[in-house]
Amino acid sequence: MTTQSFSFAGHQTFPFRYSWPKKAIDAVVADPKAFSADDALVRLGVGKNMVVSIRHWALALGLLEEDPDVPNNRGRFLKPTTFGKAVFSNEGWDPFLEDPGTLWLLHWQLASTSGNATTWWFAFNCYPGVQFDRRDLQLRLAELIKQNSVPRVSDASLKRDVDCFTLTYSRSRRRQAADEDTLDCPLIELGLLRPVGSHDTYQLVREQHRSLPLFVFGYALASYITSRATDIATVSLDELAFLPGSPGRVFCLDEIGLLARLEQLEKTTQGALVYDETSGLKQVLVRKKLEPLTFLKTHYAGRLTNRGKR
């Protein structure tokens, strides 16, 4: 099992915006060194801090990666990941973020592991409870850093991370409704974070989340099962609902929403996944190896078919 890694800051206080995933993919397809080029500001059409932010988010969302074939790379040469290219290239499944399922997918990419955006992962997977205030979240992150001897993370960096996290999923209370919508992060549409009462208090929204598509959930489930450090072909319902990095935890699903999707997947996977309650044990039986991208191909095939009929 690999050692858990943590990452803070890098976003320059900006949540990612609608156009940034495709902008990042296009830039690197044209030039693997686009983000370190002298004219990066001109190529990307944004300011210096936003160039840094776009690069950060493209890496954190798993759209780009450092090219391992370049010796002594040190982050200069980037390339699209298989996932990034499949979704956001010109021929990709949803390059302009028109499908709500893609937003859920980006949320999964961001919050299911600790290494790319630790604050986002911690809030959805480890925070004890569904309601928090910014200061308490910051203090708990500071404790996580102390326990794991993470170097060079200041209180100011943590505060910026917490502020950026809340803006990823909830509109700023300081902005007026008439402000430009494109300044908001698209993940606000998921309804995963709700302001409560005072300026600094929020609640994670745990419910069925009907806008989460079945096959996007299937992709997350297959990715989670594939990543487990065990070959045991059963997964308990409690694990899928509550364990850090599990689909139920990351997607904030209640039991009804989780069970409904597991039962639907049993039908659509021809028994590769079976939900079982024998002897009072609620668990999923994995009877066949699952390829995560297969679920996305199925999801987007339906969308592209419908688009072609317009």
Please give a structural write-up.
With 310 residues, the chain is mainly α. It folds into three domains: 19-96, Orthogonal Bundle (Arc Repressor Mutant, subunit A), CATH 1.10.10; 100-205, no CATH class; 214-308. 45% of the residues lie in helices and 9% in strands. The chain contains 13 helices and eight strands. The strands form three sheets. Strands 3-5-4 form a three-stranded antiparallel beta sheet. Strand 4 (193-195) and strand 5 form a beta hairpin. Helix 1 (20-30) packs across helix 3 (48-60). The longest helix has 17 residues, at 292-308. The protein starts with 19 loop residues before the first helix and ends with a helix. 35% of the residues are buried.
Write the layout of secondary structure elements.
Blueprint: H1 20-30, H2 40-44, H3 48-60, E1 64-66, E2 78-80, H4 82-88, H5 100-111, H6 118-125, E3 131-133, H7 134-147, H8 155-169, E4 193-195, E5 201-204, H9 214-227, E6 234-236, H10 237-242, H11 247-250, H12 255-268, E7 273-276, E8 283-286, H13 292-308
Brief summary:
Helices cover 45% and strands 9% of the residues. With 310 residues, it is mainly α.
